[in-house]
Amino acid sequence: MAERALSPASALGRSRDAGGAGATSDWFDAGTRPLIDHAPAAPAWSLGATGDRQGFARLWKAFMSARVLLALAVLGLQISAHSLSQPLPDWVFWLSAGYIAVTMLQRGLARPRGPGRSFDGQWFTIVGVDLLYVTLLLSQQIAGIHYAPLVALPVLMAAILGTRALALGTAALAALLLLGDAVIGARASLWAGTADAVQAGLTGVGLLALAWLTNNLSLRLAREQQIARRSRTEARMQSLVNNLVIETLADGVLVVDADFVVHAANPSARVMLGSDQEVTPSVFGLRDHPAWVQLADLARLTFAGEDVDGIEVTLYPEEREAVQLKVRTARTPSMGRGDARLCVMFLQDLREMQAQLRTEKLAAMGRMSAAVAHEFRNPLAAISQANALLEEELDAPTQQRLTVMIRQNTQRLAHIVDDVLDVARSPGTDPQADVVQLDDETELFCHEWATQHAAAGRLAVQLHAADLPVRFAPEHLRRLLVNLLDNAARYASRSDGAIVVSTGVVRHGPALLSVWSDGAPLEPAIERHLFEPFSSSESRSSGLGLFICRELCERHGAEIVYERCAMERDGRALEGNAFHIRLRRAPGGHSSLGPESSFS
Predict the structure, then answer these.
(1) Distance between CA atoms of 324 and 315, rounded to whole angstroms?
(2) CA–CA distance, 62 with 54 (Å, rounded to integer)
(3) How many helices (H) and strands (E) does the chain have?
(4) With 70 as the cut, is the pLDDT of residue 172 above it?
C-alpha cells in the first residue's frame, strides 16, 4: 500500500494581454525561431512531418484514381464515337484497354516512396505511360477527337506532388510532344500547319505557366499546413499543461459566466463547495444551492466593474461544517463586440492558510522547546537526586508512596525531555535502535491501555507476526500505540470490536502494525493535513498526537499512512479509518517466519 499525497502546483503559468485583442502565452517561445526553412527549390511535400507524408499519400491515391477514371472516360468516348457511325481501328480500343489495365495495376501496386523525390523511377513509369498514351492517340486524328487536354493530368500531378524541376520538366516534355505532333501532322497547307504549330506553342506555354503556378501554390499550401500543424500542437500542449496545473492547484478555480453558470471547476473548488463530481454535473449554477449565493453576488460585482480582492466569505452547506474562504475574482478581456466575458474566481481555504501559519509557528516553537528542554535537565536531575536521598531517610509507608510518585513523575518528565530533544534533531534512522518482539509488545501495550480505559470489549487484538523482531524502541512503540488508540477511542463507537489492532508481515517485506476504528470518514481538508502539527478538528485537541507518531516512525525508519478501508465484523464489511505502520525487521526477522507467512 503506497501513501497517497497531494502535491499541488503553486501557481498558474503567466500570460500577457496583447492590447485587449487576446492573451498570448509566453510559455512557448515559438516567435523567436523560424518554423519553416523557406528553401525556394524545396518540393511541395518535402517538409518531412508525419502529417505531410499522410497528405502526400492521400494525394497520390487521388491522382492514381483520377488516371483510372480518365482512362475509362476516354474508352467510353471512343466506344460512343464508334457506335455513331464513326468507326475506329481495333488497335485504338486495345490501346485504351491496355492503358486502363496499366493504370489500375499502378493504382494497386505502386506505393509513394516519400515526397520530394525528383527522379524516382515510379515518376518515369507513371508520367511516361501517360505521355506515351497521349502521343499515340495524337498521332492518329481519329473521329475528330482532340486528345491534347489529356496532358494536363500528368503535368498537374508532377507540379503538385513533385519538385519544381520535375513539374517544369514534365510540362516542357508535354509541350514538345504537342509541338512535334503539330509539325508532323501539317498536311493541308503551310498556313494550316503554321496555325497548328502556334496553337501547340501556346498550349505548351500555358502548360509551363500552369506547372509553375500550381507548384508554387502547392508549396505555399504545404508550408501553411506545416505552420498550422505546429501551432495546433503547441496550443494543445499548452492547454494540457494549463489544465494539469489548474487541476492540481490547492486553490479553487471557478469559471463563471454572466448568468452565474459555472463552466469549469477544478477539484479543489469542488471540495470547498461540497460539490460531488458524481452527483453535481460538470456545468452547474451558483444559484442552485443556497450556500453558494454569496459567490454569485461576488460574480455580479465583478461583472459590474467592482474589484473583488481578498474578500472573506463563509459558506454554510447543509450536511457539512461551515467553510471559510478567501475569494479573489478577475474578469476575462473582451475578444470583440458582442463576446460574453467570463469571471474567474480564485478560492482559498482559510483553514489551509491557518495550517501553514501553524506550521511556521511550530518551527519557532520547536527551536524554543529544544532550548527549554535542555534547561530542564539540570533541575530534573537535582529533584531526582534529592528525592533519592529523602527516600533513604523516610520510613513511613505514606511518605514512601509519595517519594515513589515523585520518582515516577521525574522519570516521566525526563523521558518527555528526551523525546522533545529527539524530535528537534533531524529525523533519521537510528542504527542502534532497540529490538522488540512485535506481537509481545503490542499485546502488552494494548492490554495496559484497555485496562486503564476499561475498554476490554471495545478493543480487539489480532496478532499474526509471532516471534518477529522489529527495530523500534519499546517506549516509543508504547507512545505510538497509545496516541493511535487514544485517537481511535475519541471517534469510534462504543460497540464491541469498534477498535482493532492487528499485526502482520509482508512476504519479503516490512512488518505491519495497524490500528482500525469504525469512526466516520475524515473531511478532505483534515485528511490533507493529517500528520501536520496543530491539525485537529477539535478545538480542545493540541493536534500533536499524529505528528508525534510520524516523527517517531521516521526516527526508527518506519512509515505511517492513513487509509479509509473496510473491516469484516459479524459477517459484514464495515467501513472505518485505519493507520498502517510499516516497521523495519531486525536482523534475523526474515528467517524467523515460515516461507508462507504473509499479511494482507
Answers:
(1) 6
(2) 12
(3) 14, 15
(4) yes
What cell does 154 get? Answer: 500528368
Q: Percentage helix, strand, coil, to 5, in the chain?
A: 50, 15, 35
Cell numbers describing residue 263: 463552466
Say how far residue 40 (Cα) sits from the centre of its chain.
Answer: 41
Residues 141 and 214 in one domain: yes
193 falls within a domain: yes
CA–CA separation, 296 and 301 (whole Å): 9
Under DSSP, is residue 329 helix (H, G, I), strand (E, B) or coil?
Answer: strand
Q: Which three cell numbers stand for residue 450?
A: 484497555
Q: Rounded distance, CA 286 to CA 259, Å?
A: 9
Task: Dig out the grid coordinates for 216 from the structure.
Answer: 508554387
Q: How many angstroms separate the CA atoms of 91 and 82, rounded?
A: 13
Over the stretch 358-410, which tens digit does the pLDDT of each residue have?
Answer: 777 767 766 777 777 777 878 888 888 888 888 888 888 888 888 888 888 88
Q: What are 140's strand-pairing partners?
A: none
**Whether residue 172 sits in one domain with residue 110:** yes
Q: What are phi and psi of 137, to 5 degrees?
A: -70, -35
Parent domain of 481:
435-583
Rg, Å, the chain Cα set = 43
Q: What's the pTM?
A: 0.44
